[in-house]
Structure to design on (392 residues):
């Protein structure tokens, strides 16, 4: 029996596990210190009323013989897929229901989609980046080329025609930097992917946080993207489903390589390895798109936007450079006084009782930067802003 040797190439611990251990040790040593967590991007507001009501009704249905449901379609119930299709339709983007796949979250699908591709494919990943993109390809042994995202390019790198790629990862609004691509910039990426005969894996998990109407919320707003892109989205941050788990992936039927349709391949993969998202959860997700659900989830997103504005004001007052916070729940700040990312993590935890995320955990270009999240409780976020201004 042989193990997958590529696991030896992974970092010893997942970034957020390391943070959790450090915080646990600190709280044990300093039980009197109130710790404010602005690190992991988990939400703090509960599910909205429309979602709770829909899920309660679904639970009642599951308790009656006449309305009980067992195994559902692996790719999702049509009532939810239709709601998602209508949502895209409002943006002028048309999809057939069979192009929409409901999942238990964008993170799962971003990793699982790699089942469709050869391990010989060359992968292009921006640096810094969400660790899952890198780790899932390291596990498979794919060769990775890193694309430099820096303060000079606003952490929005553009394609280099001299670089060969088969699989391209893009995330906008970006995690961790909060930067958002424009239409013109995404047009360059679509043109590049088509010229390279490559596929773009586009993570749009934070699209609901885009307030600027001139910025694209989907890769499919770009002409030609249906022939070269797959889009992943999630209800986790949009509607607080981090503990409920639901997302969706768009695989256009036009997308094909070597005579194979990726849509049909993904359907085959999902029906083989996935039993689908629970009916109760899907009923809750569908309620997100109802008029009441949309109004309530927008209130929650506005709440997090207010948190971002409070943190942004504190950083501006202390003349700290940062990106994000406008069309994203994340603020990506430069560590002051030349501190490394982990040095600043320890400093902020020790001096202010604030937990953030070291930028180096997202890649080499993240060194010297630090991520703060706006997903905290509003009162705690205001406290954190005051503490930041005291210690910076």
């Amino acid at each position: 029996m042989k193990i997958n040797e590529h696991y030896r190439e992974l970092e010893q611990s997942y970034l957020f596990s390391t943070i959790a251990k450090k915080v646990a040790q600190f709280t044990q040593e300093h039980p009197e210190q109130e710790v404010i967590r602005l690190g992991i991007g988990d939400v703090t507001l509960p599910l909205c009323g429309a979602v709770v009501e829909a899920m309660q009704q679904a639970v009642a249905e599951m308790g009656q013989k006449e309305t009980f449901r067992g195994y559902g379609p692996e790719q999702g119930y049509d009532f939810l897929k239709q709601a998602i299709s209508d949502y895209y339709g409002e943006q002028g983007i048309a999809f057939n229901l069979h192009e929409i796949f409901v999942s238990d979250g964008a993170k799962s699908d971003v990793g699982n989609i790699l089942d469709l591709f050869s391990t010989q494919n060359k992968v292009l990943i921006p640096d810094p980046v969400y660790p899952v993109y890198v780790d899932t390809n390291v596990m498979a042994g794919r060769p990775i080329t890193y694309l430099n995202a820096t303060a000079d390019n606003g952490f929005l790198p553009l394609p280099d025609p001299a670089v060969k790629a088969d699989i391209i990862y893009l995330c906008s609004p970006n995690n961790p930097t909060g930067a958002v691509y424009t239409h013109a910039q995404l047009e360059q990426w679509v043109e590049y992917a088509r010229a390279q005969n490559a596929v773009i894996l586009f993570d749009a998990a934070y699209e609901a946080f885009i307030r600027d109407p001139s910025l694209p919320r989907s890769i499919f707003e770009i002409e030609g993207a249906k022939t070269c892109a797959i889009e992943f989205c999630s209800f986790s941050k949009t509607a607080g489903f981090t503990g409920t788990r639901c997302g969706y992936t768009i695989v256009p039927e036009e997308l094909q390589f070597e005579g194979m349709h990726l849509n049909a391949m993904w359907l085959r993969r999902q029906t083989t390895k996935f039993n689908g998202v629970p009916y109760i959860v899907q009923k809750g997700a569908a309620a997100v798109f109802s008029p009441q659900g949309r109004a309530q989830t927008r209130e929650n997103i506005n709440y997090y936007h207010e948190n971002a504005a409070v943190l942004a004001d504190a950083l501006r007052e202390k003349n700290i450079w940062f990106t994000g916070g406008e069309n994203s729940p994340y603020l990506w700040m430069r560590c002051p006084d030349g501190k490394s990312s982990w040095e600043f993590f320890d400093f902020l935890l020790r001096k202010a009782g604030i937990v953030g995320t070291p930028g180096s955990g997202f890649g080499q270009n993240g060194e010297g930067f630090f991520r703060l999240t706006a997903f905290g409780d509003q009162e705690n976020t205001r406290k954190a802003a005051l503490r930041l201004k005291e210690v910076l």
About this structure: The chain has a mean pLDDT of 96. The radius of gyration is 21 Å.
